[in-house]
Design a protein that fits this description.
2 domains, 4-stranded antiparallel beta sheet, 22% strand, globular, binds 2-acetamido-2-deoxy-beta-D-glucopyranose
């Protein structure tokens, strides 16, 4: 009896304090819920195993969405990335495209390959710049690819950079065979050397379409200010090296946010030693590209 009495007494007291208890419970529940949500958000990038990266869009749909605007997306998605360097700004996207997408891009480009050309400075000719860029390549716009794959890839590049597709040049699909390379250079054209420019290449996205057994790395010889004072030979393969892997993407900026050329964005493609390197380059400009893309 006594215990029942205490129980009743306890209940009565609980009743009095119920609103307060309810309040605390709610606070702790919400804290736990959102806390764990933040936790999973923060670490999901590193946890996704490489083989499953293609499905990240699906996984991310577990995350609660936000009301979105007319041009927005209905749900969150995640894209895995790794910052390779801030000097220059270079970020890497493992498994940006699928194996099948890469193979199809090669198939579309293969028949129209021609020797790659260079933008020439004053005094430079095709003859005296021979050997600087020895790949073959072709420009293909997303709309020219009837498979729709380049359209998909371009859309994704636009999403991760948040730069409109109108600012992008056509894809330059390139093939480097054994011994072929691109000596170190800048993608942004310095008006002092190349004359007035209508617009600037501010960033470059490279999509590697094949694995390369040996060689063919994208290099940043001046990464973090290194090698700038050694009279660097533009043909040497030194500095930060990015090994091509099929489907992986690399984005780097050639210009600072204040719109001057980043001297550390100097980059090149090492000679292929074994295998063949296919890559799709996408130059991103500060001005819209009209209908040429
Ligand atoms: C532009 O920004 C870079 C990097 O922050 C800086 O080193 C450079 O001096 C700036 N140039 C001008 C002209 O403001």
């Amino acid at each position: 009896m006594a215990s029942k009495g205490r129980l009743l007494w306890g209940l009565a007291r609980a009743k009095v304090e119920f609103p307060l208890v309810f309040f605390y419970c709610t606070v702790f529940f919400l804290a736990g819920f959102y806390g764990s949500l933040l936790f999973s958000l923060g670490f999901s990038g590193g946890r996704v195993p490489r083989g499953r990266l293609l499905e990240v869009d699906k996984e991310a749909s577990d995350l609660p969405g936000m009301p979105y605007g007319e041009t927005g997306e209905s749900r969150p998605s995640s894209v895995t990335f790794q910052v390779l360097s801030w000097k220059p700004r270079a970020v890497y996207f493992p498994k940006f495209a699928t194996e099948e997408e890469c193979q199809n891009i090669i198939k579309v480009a293969r028949s129209s390959l021609e020797p790659s050309t260079l933008a020439l400075r004053e005094g430079e000719t095709g003859e005296n710049t021979k050997g600087i860029r020895t790949s073959s390549g072709t420009f293909i716009s997303a709309s020219e690819d009837s498979t729709g794959i380049l359209d998909q890839v371009e859309r994704k590049i636009s999403r991760v950079t948040m730069i409109p597709r109108e600012n992008m040049e056509s894809f330059n699909v390139l093939r480097y065979e054994i011994g072929q390379r691109y000596a170190s250079h800048y993608d942004a054209f310095n008006p002092a050397e190349y004359g007035p420019q209508q617009s600037h290449r501010v960033a470059t996205f490279l999509l590697y379409l094949t694995d390369v057994e040996e060689g063919g790395e994208t290099i940043f010889p001046y990464e973090n200010g290194l090698n700038m004072d050694i009279g660097y030979d533009y043909e040497k393969c030194i500095g930060l090296k990015v090994k091509p892997r099929q489907g992986d993407g690399l984005l780097f900026y050639s210009m600072f946010t204040n719109h001057t050329i980043d001297p550390l964005s100097l980059h090149g493609s090492c000679p292929v030693i074994k295998g063949v390197k296919w890559v799709a380059a996408k130059w991103i400009r500060d001005q819209m590209q009209g209908n040429s893309t």
